[in-house]
Amino acid sequence: MKGLVNACWLVLLLTSCSGHKTEDVRPENIMPSVSEDGIDISFPIQSVSNNFVTEKIQLETLKADFTAPAKISATVIKSEELSTQNIILFENPDLGSNYSLLSQHLINIRQIQNVIITQRKIELERIKDLKSHGAATGKELLEAQTALSAEESNLENERAALIEHETKLKSGGFEPEELRRAPVGATYVICDIPENLINTIQVGGTCQLKFNAFQDETFTGTIEEVTDMIDQQTRMVKLRVRVNSPNAKLKAGMFAAVSFGINEGKHLSINRNSLVTVQAKNYVFVKTGKNTFARREVFIGNEVNGRIIIFSGVNEGEEVVVKGVMQLKGLSFGY
Predict the structure, then answer these.
(1) What is residue 231's predicted lDDT score, i.e. its pLDDT?
(2) What's the helix, strand, coil split of the chain in %, to 5?
């Protein structure tokens, strides 16, 4: 096999040398020199080494395009009856019920906490004062204390129920407080993303949406939140995107595709064509001199738009071979 490789290289080298005037073009003078371990390769003729195209490795910010299926889960419309409160239309009726019950529990909590308990405390203090002057009995005092305790228990029950409905809304991708402040025309789109992308999503950033109902139109949305709960079976987490639709053309339940850039951060990277894999190990070839190359084992990360992240093995500023990699692989490994 080694002989076959050398024969092929002899043909390539002689072809490369054609057209170049030389005093002594013998095969032994143009064959590349390869170290015993196959790591270092050198060419005696520069015209041959020039056949290999290289690129200088730089530290750069990498962004990958990611698209996820999505659905409009809620829209905000104006109430015809209450000018101070908008209506939230949910695609999932259970979430709609949770939101309605949560709103009612909030009203109950404010009523109990700010009105009823305040009245019960005032009444208790009045009974205590009357009893100290002999104008009230111990039974009346006990009844006042019991009435206050009952309302405090009611308050705790209302808070517990509030948390239950709040948890269900959050598991569906919604933040109750954001819903209460949502303006007319706000449209909420929910999609699922893999948990390993959580740290690369920029909350507050923008994304592009295509709706099945409006194929010729692209909408811009704002990434509002990555929810706090991960599905234990799918290992996916919900992402909420808000789109403004003041003309109400977007409806709850519509399907969409959300596209956004995933920021991988600053890394060294190589062209995917630079990488060779041999026996489960990854290698590149680095130009170390005018006519010399060296094989390097590298440890790689994700591929982002045709670039492969490199964690170690090459340094910033080094030149990595992009074209001619398979020829160097044949010389380095003997096949």
Answers:
(1) 87
(2) 35, 35, 25
CA-based radius of gyration for the chain: 35
Q: What is the pTM of this model?
A: 0.63
Report how far Cα 191 is from the mean position of its chain's Cα atoms: 11
* Tens-place pLDDT, residues 96-135: 999 999 999 999 999 999 999 999 999 999 999 999 999 9
Terminal CA-CA length for the chain: 7
CB 324 within 8 A of CB 318: no
Of the candidates 70, 63, 27, the one whose C-alpha atom is nearest the C-alpha of residue 45 is: 27
Spacing of C-alpha 257 from chain mean position = 15
Residues of the chain with pLDDT under 70: 1-30, 46-49, 82-83, 263
Bridge partner list, 190 = 71, 240
Q: From the CB of residue 122, how many other CB atoms can be counted at a distance below 10 Å?
A: 11
Contact by Cβ (8 Å): 66, 257:
no
Strands (E), the chain: 33-34, 40-42, 53-56, 59-78, 86-90, 186-194, 206-211, 214-230, 236-244, 255-271, 276-278, 281-287, 292-297, 299-304, 307-312, 319-323
Taking a C-beta distance cutoff of 8 angstroms, is the pair 298, 274 a contact? Answer: no
Contact 304, 60 (CB under 8 A): no
Whether the CB-CB separation of 141 and 128 falls below 8 Å is answered with: yes
Distances (CA, A) of 238 to 42, 175, 195, 201, 235: 54, 12, 9, 12, 10
Measured between alpha carbons, how far is 1 from 198 in angstroms, rounded to an integer? 49
- Cα(301)–Cα(280) distance, integer angstroms: 14
Q: What is the phi-psi region of residue 74: left when phi exceeds 0, alpha when psi lies from -120 to 50, beta otherwise?
A: beta
